[in-house]
Amino acid sequence: MMDMWNVGVDIGGTTIKLAFVTDDGLFVDKWEIPTNTSENGKHIAKDISYSIHTKIKENGHSLDHVRGIGLGAPGFIEMSTGFIYQAVNIGWKDYALKEELEHETGLPVIIDNDANIAAIGEMWLGAGKGSKDLLCVTLGTGVGGGVIAGGEVVHGITGMAGEIGHITVIPEGGSPCNCGKTGCLETVSSATGIRRLALEALNSRPSLGLLQTMYEENGDISTADIFNCAKEQDALSLRIVEKATFYLGFALANISMANNPEKIVIGGGVSRAGETLLEPVKRYFKQYALPRVYEATDIVIATLGNDAGILGAAWLAKNKL
Amino acid sequence: MMDMWNVGVDIGGTTIKLAFVTDDGLFVDKWEIPTNTSENGKHIAKDISYSIHTKIKENGHSLDHVRGIGLGAPGFIEMSTGFIYQAVNIGWKDYALKEELEHETGLPVIIDNDANIAAIGEMWLGAGKGSKDLLCVTLGTGVGGGVIAGGEVVHGITGMAGEIGHITVIPEGGSPCNCGKTGCLETVSSATGIRRLALEALNSRPSLGLLQTMYEENGDISTADIFNCAKEQDALSLRIVEKATFYLGFALANISMANNPEKIVIGGGVSRAGETLLEPVKRYFKQYALPRVYEATDIVIATLGNDAGILGAAWLAKNKL
């Protein structure tokens, strides 16, 4: 008897990640194709379908043993219908992706946004394994999030649940955010935000120290530089890390007073800082959450990296189709 | 054929509210008994059992047609086991309430905390009717909350979900809260908090105006006075209402970026202020939430008053037993 396979698809602005995943969460095959954003992304469904069918043949598998496709995409998505209101990076607007992809592939399709499938992935096989009450945070260019309660993703009425990057942490006088507001968590705790805080400090009041030297030598610094220098006890870098993690710990504590998660899983580029990030985040979390909350919440680093999305998407196919 | 009845029980510090409720949410009978907190509340289960059985007989109903008991209590409760970790007002500590009450009554029992059953009540038959993504806020002595996502109460890992009164809205320099932290939402947006803000202002910089006059004449003011004077455009009262609703709108916006509710239902004594409360809360909510969130969220006043709890408890019996 052939195993049932689940197809996981994670659509990004430049590449589409695909995988065949067994019900046990094992990769049978994993590959990527480029994201063709021309003509408002109208070729993408065809590209995905062609790629999946080719790979099934290559693997000598039968379409009858493919349960269906779980898919994650960036943007505003209505999960129940698989309708994309808007995915700016891809070019879709009011696009019936689920319908289109089911038509192309002949397989059932289920869709959620990229942050939510990553959260599901970490819940299934990553740092959130075994936990049903989870908050996943991605610290990258922006700050993304996925909320899981009782083992189910919280979507909210317009699919905006988990948009924790736009929680306001500086109610007055904060920096402008891409969203049009000011003082969002994203402006101070994303990779971009942390780097901005450091550059502002480096430019406004040059000091002695590791980060300043690095900046003067290379003409630039990265978020990784800041955490590396903080690890070396560079005073300015420590100050920046304290500031970024203060706001993150504060926001996570406030979300946790509403949702009381068992685990908070932090992923994205910034999470590579590991303990240098975790220690102050936990400290500020504890400062702003009640004991019955902070004692029960484990704050950990994500473990699945770029695979979180396709695994979460495969989980959707396995459990929701 | 006899109707199936659900028993709703709402335990408070001074009275226990009870009701027989049909599957359609109609009251068959509704009554109260005093809460006997002597000997750490050990008589309460017996009192409830005796009261229910007496009323069933009085109503000429049969125990076979009572589905079971849904019950709400204040404190820290593990819903899955019906175990009370602590209910300070009642005297219970590490108390197996569900087991005890099932033993006494011979009926199946399901338990949740008082804030959650009130939220369920409003979802079933009140201001949240028809909505599956709900945030209920009670502005009374403290600030309580209940979070519902996808039609299910969010409990979190230690039942602390919905404790939004202890969301920190003033990260530095806020007033002390009963919980031991400072700057909690409860310190500025509860009835107690609003009155405190007003008294501080009245005592520190006496001004002309309606509230000041009232204070000097009566030697005291209530939260209702503040909202009444605000409605009459009293400058100080307006300032206090703006402050209290700023923090409330800000906190609700931040929770909504995580949970994206369809409705926010505001209950408790303060909610009697109606539009005088709602207008500024909505304004600040809009200031701090993204358009896709605030456009989809209806902020409304609770409609069930003191019945929300027993009705929510009856819903639990109906749907979870």
From TrEMBL, chains A, B:
EC number of the protein: 2.7.1.2
One GO process term, biological-process aspect: glycolytic process
Any Pfam family matching the protein: ROK
PROSITE patterns attached to this UniProt entry: ROK (PS01125)
GO molecular function, one term: glucokinase activity
Keywords (A to Z) from UniProt: ATP-binding, Kinase, Nucleotide-binding, Transferase
Name of this chain's protein: Glucokinase
Top-level division of the source organism's lineage: Bacteria
Organism of provenance: Terrilactibacillus tamarindi
Family: Belongs to the ROK (NagC/XylR) family.
GO CC terms of this entry: cytoplasm
